[in-house]
From TrEMBL:
<feature type="compositionally biased region" description="Acidic residues">
    <location>
        <begin position="495"/>
        <end position="507"/>
    </location>
</feature>
<dbReference type="Pfam" id="PF10394">
    <property type="entry name" value="Hat1_N"/>
</dbReference>
<comment type="function">
    <text>Catalytic component of the histone acetylase B (HAT-B) complex. Acetylates 'Lys-12' of histone H4 which is required for telomeric silencing. Has intrinsic substrate specificity that modifies lysine in recognition sequence GXGKXG. Involved in DNA double-strand break repair.</text>
</comment>
<dbReference type="GO" id="GO:0000781">
    <property type="term" value="C:chromosome, telomeric region"/>
</dbReference>
<protein>
    <recommendedName>
        <fullName>Histone acetyltransferase type B catalytic subunit</fullName>
        <ecNumber>2.3.1.48</ecNumber>
    </recommendedName>
</protein>
<dbReference type="GO" id="GO:0004402">
    <property type="term" value="F:histone acetyltransferase activity"/>
</dbReference>
<feature type="region of interest" description="Interaction with histone H4 N-terminus">
    <location>
        <begin position="44"/>
        <end position="46"/>
    </location>
</feature>
<keyword id="KW-0234">DNA repair</keyword>
<keyword id="KW-0963">Cytoplasm</keyword>
<dbReference type="GO" id="GO:0005634">
    <property type="term" value="C:nucleus"/>
</dbReference>
<dbReference type="InterPro" id="IPR017380">
    <property type="entry name" value="Hist_AcTrfase_B-typ_cat-su"/>
</dbReference>
<feature type="site" description="Interaction with histone H4 N-terminus">
    <location>
        <position position="177"/>
    </location>
</feature>
<comment type="similarity">
    <text>Belongs to the HAT1 family.</text>
</comment>
<feature type="region of interest" description="Interaction with histone H4 N-terminus">
    <location>
        <begin position="210"/>
        <end position="212"/>
    </location>
</feature>
<feature type="domain" description="Histone acetyl transferase HAT1 N-terminal">
    <location>
        <begin position="7"/>
        <end position="165"/>
    </location>
</feature>
<feature type="compositionally biased region" description="Polar residues">
    <location>
        <begin position="472"/>
        <end position="481"/>
    </location>
</feature>
<keyword id="KW-0156">Chromatin regulator</keyword>
Amino acid sequence: MEKEGDWSCDANDALHITVIQPGEQKPKTLYAFHPRFTYPIFGDDERIFGYQGLIIRLRFAAHDLRSHVHISYDDKFKEIGDTVALDLNKTLKDWIPESAFTLLPEFEKVIQNDTAAKDFTPPGKLMHSYIAKGRNFEIWAGSLGDPHVRHLLERAQIFVSLFIEAGTPIVTDDPEWTLERWFVYFVYEKVAPPTPSASQYSIVGYATTYRWWLYPKKDPSETPTAKDGPFPCPGDIRFSELPSRLRIAQFLILPPHQGSGHGIHLYTAIHSTIVKDPTVVELTVEDPNEAFDALRDTADYHILRPEFLKQNVNINPNPYSSGSTKRRPRLMPTSALIPIKALHDIRCLYKIAPTQFAHILEMFLLSRIPSKNRAIGGANMARLVIKKHKAEDENDRRYYWWRMLVKQRLYKRSRDMLIQLDLSDRIQKLDETLTNVEEGYEALLKAFVAREENNTIKDQGSEEERVDPKKTSMNQRTANGARNKDRVKRKLTVVEDDSDEDMDLESEVNKRPKV
Ligand SMILES: CC(=O)SCCNC(=O)CCNC(=O)[C@H](O)C(C)(C)COP(=O)(O)OP(=O)(O)OC[C@H]1O[C@@H](n2cnc3c(N)ncnc32)[C@H](O)[C@@H]1OP(=O)(O)O
């Protein structure tokens, strides 16, 4: 709350975003909310100097995101020397299209009388439709090379700065061949038009994806040969069709729609598209935040779990051949513990990035050990440390090997840092990290079980769409808006580099740390 006589105010509070559509007499507000961040516009402190009772109202037409800015205040600071109120129009001009700075009645008239609105469809192609909480939603997508997609994205881009920390708008005036590498997904609700000429679409969120060219791995048996053909002309190569990794760059569900499953639907729509696209090798994410990590883990777990179950993926509790159990093992018997080749094939089939795949696999393998044999269920850890892989109960042995497999991965990822520590510190650090990782998995598993139970209850009473990850369908959850309070990020004391590209289960086998 600002004090009387205080000329500085919180920019996040001062900025009001409203999504509007035509009404009986004049446009009406569908949703109103505040931004999460304004530091890109107003500076790190997110404060605006020089006004009392300031309201900056940023209106967006629900269907095509045509915008309008309206500034009002009770009082403005009178200039004293160099101290002046912030020039709001000048500051906002870098972020909002010129057309938004018209008089409010003019803007309202345009919205009320826009007869083209009733024929509006989102740009690109309809990729998927779904029902959540009894309401209809559609996901449309198209390349940034399409001027309609570009136009809508340009209007939406301010949301990236307002809702994604460190998010920056995409440069849309690059040459077309490079714009084609961007694909934009829009989520819309299909609403009953409030007037005969109004649109039936209302924006929910959007995501941008980008194709990174993937250097193809050569078959080692092939001898490289120089070819004498003509050098390809620029027109012969479509950059949007070269072998690539697809990277999700920006991902946003607007606040009024958050927590209703739209994020999962959007992520799964993107995943479904790339699974069908032979030119895309895997899906990666640029700088995911904690909430996105949770969303991605949830979605990927739903996608992979049925396949793991089908192939009965589990830890072999007896990786040493009989008779060899007496000697002290020196190497991790990874390939005897888990089916490396089958896992590699599943990963490639579902195009999940290696690190992410390892997380989901570890979570699944943990779930296959009864909870009484895990730390969460009160397993006797002191005994396990002594007995190790010789524990009598096979699930104790599984749990022992599960911990070793995770430690192996963590060690590899943080090796450069860990080798600088004394052996005892190294062991302690790795143990702490493992505990944190395990707690994160347990929380995700708990949420997963709760969601499944919730779905089962709903399924008994309704015929809502069901999960079929093999078909990479979108229907991975019913409209459960409740946010899981137990959600924790994979907390790591050893810094885990989350870059998606540099880990492979196969290569884990080659580097075999001592047990
Ligand atoms: C690559 C990037 O762009 S990273 C930036 C991601 N974008 C942002 O942070 C912008 C602001 N936030 C948002 O746009 C949205 O809240 C998103 C994209 C993070 C999530 O979208 P939503 O539609 O709200 O998620 P959805 O309802 O589908 O949730 C699915 C699951 O994701 C996880 N999840 C989603 N949001 C959160 C959160 N804020 N905290 C913890 N877990 C979350 C949960 O597992 C959730 O399942 P549950 O509700 O059963 O617990």
